[in-house]
Amino acid sequence: IRPPGHHAGPRGAVGGQSAGFCLLSSAAIAAAYAMHVHRHVVKKVAIVDFDIHHGNGTEACVRNLIPSEWREAFQTAAGTLTMSGVACKPWLGSDDASNVFFSSIHGFGADAPPPGPDDDDDDESPVGLFYPGSGGPATSSEAPRICNLPVALRTPSGRWRRVMLEKMLLPLAAFAPDLVVICAGFDAHAHDPLEAGGLHEVDYEWMTQELVGIAETHCEGRVVSVLEGGYRVTGGALSSLARAAGAHVGALMDTSLAGVKWRADAATQRLDAAIATDEAARTARAERQQAAREAAREKAREAAAAAAAAEGAVAR
Length: 316
What we know:
Strand content: 15-25%
């Protein structure tokens, strides 16, 4: 669906900020609809977000399940207009907060790389927090259950997967939802023009397979995935967005995952094996590149020696 939705809160833009490209909080609407219309089947719902940006709008909708005070300030021609109040919007009833789980893994921190050795120390270029600037480390054991998992920008695959397994997937499995709603953003891809993530297609395949496994175990396979971010469309079917989304949808449709129960120990073993394989592949690639560089240097030395010998022969 378009437009995306995870920056749109219960009252539109969150905190008076721009809501990115988002107008309606699609994942929260889907979860609320499921809990209301399919209440005899979907009693507990989980929303998980792996977009590179914090799902601040979805979180605001989840927090709005219990009474909370809100305050917003707007700049007008006459000055600053401040509004405040108490908001609460249940999706089904008073028990909603105990039956909703939300978790977001996302980039967080300085929206620029650290200065390099050749950068001017007097350069005072502003460096802000990565958009939307929210989603610092926070885990709520009380209702509603909210797990924010901020990681450094350009976090590599192994670290991202480890954080997601230990701090999102394990609590999600313990929550045992009846429906999993995925906010599927693909802008954490290493080739996305945002240059904020370090993931590849295989990482999206892994994340999806693990979420499907949890859904097969607790939800009878009920998974809904909605598209959020992802901006590299140059190249069509070969673009990073197309490849990442293709890996995600392929895992969602993988019939070999149907009926397979998810276990934490097995998931940890799969992750350890995948990281070891990736490390071995990186080491082998680095060795091949080093060997190629050495061969090129040796060839250059031989060419230089031959040229010098030829020049000496002409002089004689």
